[in-house]
Amino acid sequence: MKNFKALILAMMAIVTMASCSSDDNGIIKTPITPPVVVDPPVVVDPPVVLDAIVGEWRIDVMYFDGDDVKLNDCERKAVVIFEKENILNEAAVDYDCTIITDDRHGTWEKGDVSGDYKIRTNADSFNAFYNDVEFTQVVFEGDTMTTTCVITNQGPRPYTLALKYVKVKSE
């Protein structure tokens, strides 16, 4: 057993001497790693989400108090363009099917309540559908939009005007 202890001590001494070298001088060396270069994060602007009303819409059906007015083919050529800058431009159709675009401008604004919009034309516009009318309810279903308002300032009693549009193109 004495020989075994002596053998173990001798091996430990050899291992200890072999692991030290004369240039260590008691200084612990740590490897130097090159600095990690990190690219700055790429800032991506969030996608612009346009309001569903933005685009060009062709009138399809007009209702007075729920009754279909039965627009003819000429009247169904009328379009309203809602631009993203809250500008409204209308191309109405004259009695002889001529499309009229001059002096038919206005504004639109989304309200605080879902489906609530203000759609107004300029006071000097000859606009057939939006002159002196403020639409308060707009409903979107697929590629159709229905605008509805109650008109109280024309005639002896209020009546409901609803216009159903089909989207011609998006912006």
Structure description:
- By secondary structure, this protein is mainly beta.
- The chain is built from 1 helix and 10 strands; from the N terminus they run H-E-E-E-E-E-E-E-E-E-E.
- The chain is rod-shaped.
- Strands 1, 2, 3, 4, 5, 6, 7, 8, 9 and 10 form a 10-stranded antiparallel beta sheet that branches.
- The model has no long low-confidence stretch (mean pLDDT about 80).
- The chain has one helix spanning about 1-20, and strands at about 55-65, 65-70, 80, 85-95, 100, 105-110, 115-120, 135-140, 145-150, 160-170.
- Helices cover about 10% and strands about 35% of the residues.
- It starts with a helix and ends with a strand.
**Major beta sheet summary:** 10 strands, antiparallel
The total strand number stands at 10
Shape estimate: rod-shaped
Helix content: 10-25%
Which structural class should the secondary elements be placed in?
A: mainly beta
pLDDT average, as an integer? Answer: 78
Number of helical stretches of at least 4 residues: 1
Extract low-pLDDT stretches.
Answer: none
Please tell me how large the radius of gyration is.
Answer: 39 Å
- What's the order of the H and E elements? HEEEEEEEEEE
Question: In whole angstroms, how far apart are the ends?
Answer: 95 Å
